[in-house]
Design goal:
This protein is mainly alpha-helical. The chain has one domain: Tetracycline Repressor, domain 2, CATH 1.10.357.10. The chain contains 10 helices and 2 strands. The radius of gyration is 22 Å and the shape is elongated. The termini are far apart. The N terminus is likely disordered. Pfam families: TetR_C_6, TetR_N. This is TetR/AcrR family transcriptional regulator. Keywords: DNA-binding, Repressor, Transcription, Transcription regulation. InterPro entries: BetI_C, Homeodomain-like_sf, HTH-type_TetR-like_transc_reg, HTH_TetR, Tet_transcr_reg_TetR-rel_C_sf.
Length: 225
Amino acid sequence: MQTSPTALVPSPRRRAKGADRRRQVVEATLDVLAAKGYAELTIGDIARSLGISTALILQHFKTKDALLLEAQRLLAAEYHDNWQRALAASGPSAAEKLWSLVAAEFAEAICTPRKIMAWKAFWAEGRGRREYIAEFGARNVEYLKLLTALCATIIKEGGYAGYDAKVVARTIDSLETGLWLELTSTATPMTVNQTRRTAFSHLAMIFPRHFTPKGPIRGPIKRAR
């Protein structure tokens, strides 16, 4: 009996080796994590989703905890790199930079239901939160410091009396987090475009001399009298 040539070609999943296999396993982990949550996920679930053995996964990740930490690292790196690129590509003014950061928060590549559900699974798990803070807390501090500095510049430029840059930055950051959660709400879920528009409208309400809901205002800033 002859075997057809195509039958001899292994599937892409079985051909994967080394770094490709590790990445494949981590991506599958995010899929299962989004569907089942942190506590319910097993190595067997991930292996079945890929059509491979648990032993093959354990060659790359010795424990479930090690695999979950690697998945969290992937999400954190994507998130950090995304806003760094947005900042580098933005215009020179503080308003342009702040607008770019808010837009980056809802970029299609990172703001997907699958990834947000995975984030929620990590946030809901005490151990996941502790591991995240231990390894990635400095990045969160960096982001908040940047938001605060940009808000301070905008407050000074526009003469926004009584504004506290730290409070405003926290408000922006908190709204972004809340809008992420709205994307996966089972009651009235928002679309990515709706969350982005909401965040932009929020900027315009906070800093009306610098923004409209459609973008930064060009030209000289009109200070309050």
